[in-house]
Write a structure and sequence with these properties.
Strand content of chain B: 5-15%
Number of helices of chain A: 14
Distance between the termini of chain A: 95 Å
CATH architecture of chain B: Orthogonal Bundle
Radius of gyration of chain B: 20 Å
Order of helices and strands of chain B: EEHHHHHEEHHHHHEHEEEHHHH
Structural class of chain A: mainly alpha
Shape of chain A: globular
Oligomer: heterodimer
CATH topology of chain B: Cytochrome-c3 Hydrogenase, chain B
Strand content of chain A: under 5%
Number of helices of chain B: 15
Radius of gyration of chain A: 26 Å
Number of strands of chain A: 1
Order of helices and strands of chain A: HHHHHHHHHHHHHHE
Helix content of chain B: 40-55%
CATH superfamily of chain B: Cytochrome-c3 Hydrogenase, chain B
Shape of chain B: globular
Distance between the termini of chain B: 12 Å
Largest sheet of chain A: none
């Protein structure tokens, strides 16, 4: 059982408050430690928890604001324009202005809505997005809780946003929201399966569900050892996040804003917040599970490495958003069941066989595994692309095959066209 | 502005009832109380992303009605303006097509960037960007300024690379192909029966371009190809437009070679045109299809009747047949591939 004192955050805050004189507290804690009188360890524990939660949540909200700014700036660059640059240096205060504007909007509740469910939905949406941060290790010793079922916890909590979308759709009693609910529920449940199975290869390698243990096990980042698992997880989590090209639940050119159509003011703001918080959380999970977590090289602190890798993942997600159009819902379902599901199964079998050959792989043996896995990855993705991809491809078959240029001298009609 | 009352079975479209008229401004009736020259401004506002070609179509009809022989330099300028406008309109169509596909504005901004160059050329040419009102019976209202020609040459030099880049960026995308291939296919006979014209008809393999079949202006003095596709699906309708942009660039180059100095409008055209009693109709190839103004004169200063054959409106008539059986998401892509303009549908 990991000790809570493994977390530097916990150690410093707790030791500052408690005066019991735990062995771990010697030399730690601000102001010499022991601010609370003896016998109040329970209060110290409680206060520590509250302070850590406040710190993480405020950090997340700050991160969301930064990401809104970063995404808009990046999208601007991708589209050959500047992006927001008016409020504050480099437009950094733009999301603050947005937040203030959102709060001062009128909060409209449609008369046909189920008021209770309608109000509950945004809260339900934000709640799981924030909970995921509890187990993400942001650096060596910088985590809130190191629970031994962290990955299971993330998957279970991450699946809860289906409920929120369903509640929002049914609660607002809107036809666009109805479409959105049908699409979202079908898609999110389908993509849960490849999402979970793609992680099993990592579990077999690390032998633990704890994110801290998984990061420790990565002598080389797991996206090198488990390429198929990494790409399936990335794609499936983009579907879980409702990001382009899987944003059918809020397709603005089709169903207005989907389940958010009837929401205004801070209720809409909460949806927005939850979406970005979930995106950052997912990038954190990807970083911890596949990109080697906080591992980097000294003297740059581990927290910096973790955040830098997260930003890299977020940039890829924004890049995809800027470049690709949206898939149709039936194509999305086909993709999940016909491609991703089989690919994860292939990954599972290959990883299992490799682990039978090298039961506890050393770093060299991990590199062997990586080589074999990359071959499997490239071959299987190529085969699936050929089988399931578009049959008719004008670009691959010489670009202009589709269009013929006619210059025949068809008999011209008499000028004017009137008899 | 355009309303579709749609019945769904899950995601599948079962029935569509298009409802128009929200942008009806009575342009045809308004034309009856304006002089022949004043009506030009009304035509700008019909299809507001291709006002030059609207001007041209109307002016040709007036010239036929009043028997005006246009000045050659004016005709060449009108052709250059019309072909530039065709490029601009096709760029808008292509950009919004991808917007309907769910792309986050990137293709739209790429096409708008190129369209902006055309609008700047129009600004040099006539002072207006969108509602040009550049053409007059007998020619155009003023000659192109000196700085127009180098700017036009720069545009012609840059544009082919931009078109290639755009086509390469979007047409190679697997998602675009998966979404567009074989969606909303209409056979050419149905299109002909519904008198659909323009790129939508040429995407089904029918070689019907009024610039070629029924040459007006000096289109018989320039050579150009008509891009034809056979698939008649959403992708074909999009790619035909991209190829037409290239052909239009060629036409403009030939116009520049053949244009000669001279008056842009004959002095003999009176300020207040009083055509003899009669009627006229000239079908022209607009970016969206055949546009024609049917004018009836009773000998007065204003048209007795002005009826517009609007390609947007007529191309929309097949909408129901095209949408039924497809998915909700394809509705908007198909709608975008028809490339209509509500200002022209409702007039």
């Amino acid at each position: 059982m990991p000790s809570p004192f493994d977390s530097i955050l916990y150690k410093y805050v707790y030791c500052t408050l408690s005066s019991t004189g735990d062995a771990e507290c010697v030399g730690n804690g601000l102001f010499g430690g022991g601010l609370l009188p003896g016998g109040l360890e329970w209060l110290a524990f409680l206060l520590t928890a509250v302070i850590m939660v406040a710190a993480i949540i405020n950090g997340v909200l700050g991160g969301v604001l930064l990401m809104i700014w970063g995404e808009r700036r990046l999208l601007g660059r991708f589209q050959g324009r500047t992006g927001p640059n008016r409020w504050g240096p480099f437009g950094l205060l733009t999301p603050v202005a947005d937040a203030v504007k959102t709060m001062f909007k009128e909060d409209v509740v449609p008369t046909v809505s189920d008021r209770f469910v309608f109000t509950l939905a945004p809260i339900l949406m934000l709640f799981p997005a924030l909970l995921i941060y509890a187990v993400i290790p942001f650096g060596a010793g910088t985590w809130m809780a190191d629970i031994n079922v962290a990955l299971l916890f993330i998957i279970a909590i991450g699946g809860a946003n289906v409920l929120a979308i369903l509640a929002a759709s049914l609660g607002s009693g809107n036809r666009y929201a109805m479409f959105s609910a049908m699409r979202a529920v079908a898609m999110l449940i389908s993509y849960e399966i490849p999402l979970v199975i793609s992680l099993i290869g990592v579990l077999m390698l690390s032998g633990s569900l704890s994110l801290v243990d998984i990061v420790d096990a990565q002598t080389i980042p797991f996206f090198i050892v488990q390429p198929l698992g990494f790409f399936v997880f990335l794609i499936a989590s983009m579907a879980e996040l409702n990001r382009t090209p899987f944003d059918v639940a809020e397709a603005e050119s089709e169903i207005v804003a989907g389940y958010m159509t009837d929401y205004s003011s801070m209720k809409f703001g909460l949806f927005f917040l939850a979406e970005f918080a979930a995106t950052i959380a997912t990038s954190g999970v990807i970083t911890a599970v596949f990109l080697g977590g906080w591992h980097g090289f000294d003297p740059i602190p581990s927290q910096f490495w973790f955040v830098a890798k997260m930003v890299a993942v977020l940039t890829v997600i924004v890049w995809i958003r800027a470049s690709w159009p949206r898939l149709r819902i039936d194509q999305i379902m086909n993709f999940a069941w016909k491609a991703l599901f089989e690919l994860t199964l292939i990954n599972l079998v290959v990883s299992g066989v490799l682990l039978l050959i090298w039961p506890s792989p050393s770093t060299t043996e991990l590199w062997y595994m990586a080589g074999i896995n990359w071959v499997v990855f490239l071959v299987s993705v190529y085969i699936f692309g050929r089988v399931l991809g578009p049959k008719h491809d004008p670009v691959r078959s010489g670009n202009f095959q589709d269009v013929t240029l006619s210059n025949s001298d068809a008999p011209a009609l008499p000028a004017g066209g009137r008899d | 502005m355009f309303r579709m009352r749609v019945t769904f079975d899950g995601e599948e479209v079962v029935d569509v009832e298009p409802i128009f008229g929200y942008l009806h401004r009575g342009s045809e009736k308004l034309a009856e109380s304006r002089t022949y020259t004043q009506v030009v401004t009304l035509t700008d506002r019909m299809d507001y992303v291709s006002s030059m070609t609207n001007n041209l179509s109307y002016i040709l009809s007036v010239e036929q009605l009043a028997g005006i022989e246009p000045a050659p330099r004016g005709v060449w300028l009108r052709m250059i303006a019309a072909e530039l406008q065709r490029i601009a309109s096709h760029l808008v169509a292509a950009g919004f097509f991808f917007q309907d596909l769910g792309a986050l504005g990137t293709p739209l901004i790429l096409t708008m960037r190129e369209r902006e160059q055309i609008l700047e050329l129009f600004e040099r040419l006539c002072g207006a960007r969108i509602t040009a009102s550049y053409m007059r019976p007998g020619g155009v209202f003023m000659d192109a300024p000196e700085d127009f020609w180098p700017a036009l040459n720069r545009f012609l030099d840059d544009m082919p690379a931009h078109v290639d880049q755009f086509e390469e960026l979007v047409s190679g995308n697997e998602i675009v192909q998966a979404r567009c291939d074989g969606v909303a296919v209409v056979d050419s006979q149905t299109l002909i029966d519904a008198s659909v014209t323009g790129p939508m008809l040429r995407a089904s393999g029918v070689d019907w371009d009024l610039r070629h079949r029924q040459p007006y202006e000096y289109y018989d003095r320039v050579t150009f190809n008509r891009p034809l596709a056979t698939a008649s699906d959403n992708y074909a309708r999009f790619i035909v437009r991209i190829h037409e942009i290239r052909e239009s660039l060629g036409i403009i180059r030939q116009c520049i070679e053949q244009i000669e100095p001279g008056p842009v409008r004959p002095e003999t055209v009176p300020a207040l045109i009083r055509p003899p009693v009669g009627d006229s109709y000239v079908g022209t190839e607009c970016p969206k299809g055949e546009l024609g103004f049917y004018l009836v004169s009773d000998g007065g200063v204003a048209p007795y009747r002005c009826k517009v054959r609007a390609p947007s409106f007529i191309n929309l008539t097949l909408l129901r047949e095209m949408l039924i059986g497809d998915k909700l998401a394809d509705m908007f892509v198909t709608f975008g591939s028809i490339d209509i303009n509500m200002g022209e549908v409702d007039r």
